[in-house]
Specification:
The protein has 319 residues and is α+β, with helices and mostly antiparallel strands. The chain has three domains: 1-43, no CATH class; 46-100, no CATH class; 110-311, HIT family, subunit A (2-Layer Sandwich), CATH 3.30.428. It is built from nine helices and 14 strands. The chain has helices spanning 3-8, 49-53, 55-58, 102-108, 120-136, 141-147, 207-224, 269-277, 301-311; strands spanning 11-19, 24-31, 34-41, 60-68, 71-77, 92-97, 113-118, 158-159, 169-173, 186-191, 233-238, 247-252, 266-268, 292-297. Helix 7 (207-224) packs antiparallel against helix 8 (269-277). The N and C termini lie far apart (69 Å).
Length: 319
C-alpha cells in the first residue's frame, strides 16, 4: 500500500497535541478503522537559488498584522488555494524590515557567538556610555511612538490606567507569535517609565515594584486568554536586550525554549526579583553591582567596539 494512500485515508478523531509554537501537530485518528497517530511538522525551507529568487512571487494571501516605522509583519500562504471548502490557513509568519540598514544585515547574518562576562567596572566605563549613545541616536523612537499612542495602537492588547503612573505598562504580542496558538503565546510588557533602560538599572528598592508588576501582568494575561493560568506563564528579561527600554517577555510554558530563552540571553524575572530583595547593602545598591555573562555575535557592536578590544588588550572606544 502506498504512503499516499495511507495518508489520504486518515480520518481525524482529535488534535492530540501541538508544540514548537504550533509548527508541529499530533493528530489522533483511524485508517480503515484501526487507530493511528499522524505527526506533522513544517519542513525546512528550500534553499535552492531558483526557489529563493522566486520567493516573493510564490507567497499568496498576505495579511498585514501590523507595522511600525521600518518594521512590518504578516501572515501568508506558501501554497496556492486548494480544493477545500475553506482556504488553506496561513503557514508563513513573515517579518519585513524596509528599508533595512547595514546594522540589520549584521544582526541577522550568521555569526560566531562569543560568551562574555560584563563586570560592574566594564558596565560603568563602556556599556553604560554605549547604551546612552544608542538612545541618543533615536533607536527608541518606535518604542516611544507606541507608548505615546502615535503608532501601532491596533496591536496594543492592554494599556494599564489609573493608580501610580510608575506602574503603568502596555501589553503587545511579540512579532514572532502568530497571535492564535496559545501554546506559542509570547507577549511583551513595555513599562511606561523611562528611567529604567535595562535590568542593570534595577535597584534593591525596586524589588517590591517589580514583584507587584509581575503579579499584575500575570492577572492581566489570565483575563485576556481563557484557560491560561499564572503557573502556565514564564517571565524573563533579556540582557543584553535588543533595545534599551525596560520590557518583560511573557511566554507560555509550552513554548519551546529557543535561543531567546536560553542561558546567555534570558534572565528569569522571578530570579531577578529574589536577587534584588535579598541583596545586601542599601536601597541604592542593585544590578549595576553584579557580574553578568551573556553571548554576543562577532558582528555586534558590543563585541567589535568593547569586548574584542578588551580581549586584545586595547582600550575600547564607544564615542
Amino acid at each position: 500500500m502506498s504512503a499516499n494512500s495511507l495518508i489520504t485515508r486518515f480520518k481525524l478523531t482529535k488534535l492530540l497535541n501541538q508544540d514548537q509554537g504550533g509548527r508541529r501537530i499530533i493528530l489522533q485518528g483511524t485508517i480503515s478503522g484501526e487507530p493511528a497517530l499522524l505527526l506533522a511538522e513544517r519542513g525546512a525551507f528550500d534553499t535552492d537559488p531558483a526557489y529563493l529568487s522566486a520567493f516573493g512571487r510564490l507567497v499568496a494571501h498576505v495579511n498585514n498584522l501590523g507595522e511600525n516605522d521600518i518594521y512590518r509583519w504578516y501572515l501568508a500562504n506558501s501554497l496556492p488555494d486548494n480544493s477545500l471548502d475553506q482556504p488553506t490557513p496561513p503557514d508563513l509568519k513573515i517579518n519585513l524590515i524596509y528599508p533595512s540598514t547595514e546594522k540589520h544585515t549584521k544582526k541577522y547574518s550568521f555569526q560566531q557567538s562569543r560568551y562574555v562576562t560584563e563586570t560592574p567596572d566594564i558596565y560603568a566605563k563602556y556599556i553604560r556610555p554605549y547604551m546612552s549613545k544608542c538612545r541618543e541616536e533615536g533607536r527608541l523612537n518606535w518604542v516611544f511612538n507606541i507608548i505615546e499612542g502615535k503608532s501601532e495602537q491596533e496591536n496594543v492588547l492592554y494599556r494599564s490606567e489609573g493608580g501610580d503612573k510608575k506602574d503603568h505598562y502596555l501589553l503587545l504580542p511579540d512579532l514572532n507569535w502568530d497571535r492564535k496558538t496559545i501554546g506559542g503565546l509570547h507577549l511583551l510588557a513595555l513599562v511606561e517609565r523611562r528611567d529604567i533602560w535595562s535590568v542593570r538599572d534595577l535597584k534593591k528598592k525596586d524589588g517590591a515594584w517589580l514583584r507587584h508588576l509581575r503579579s499584575t501582568l500575570a492577572t492581566t494575561v489570565s483575563k485576556l486568554y481563557d484557560g491560561v493560568e499564572d503557573d502556565m506563564l514564564k517571565f524573563y528579561v533579556h540582557y543584553q536586550p535588543t533595545y534599551y527600554h525596560f520590557h518583560i517577555h511573557i511566554v507560555h510554558v509550552d513554548l519551546d525554549p529557543t535561543g531567546t530563552q536560553a542561558v546567555g540571553k534570558a534572565l528569569g524575572l522571578d530570579n531577578v526579583i529574589s536577587q534584588l530583595e535579598k541583596m545586601a547593602g542599601g536601597e541604592g545598591d542593585g544590578m549595576q553591582d553584579v557580574e553578568l555573562s551573556y553571548t554576543l555575535g562577532e558582528a555586534s557592536e558590543l563585541w567589535t567596539e568593547i569586548f574584542l578590544p578588551l580581549k586584545e588588550g586595547r582600550e575600547p572606544s564607544v564615542g
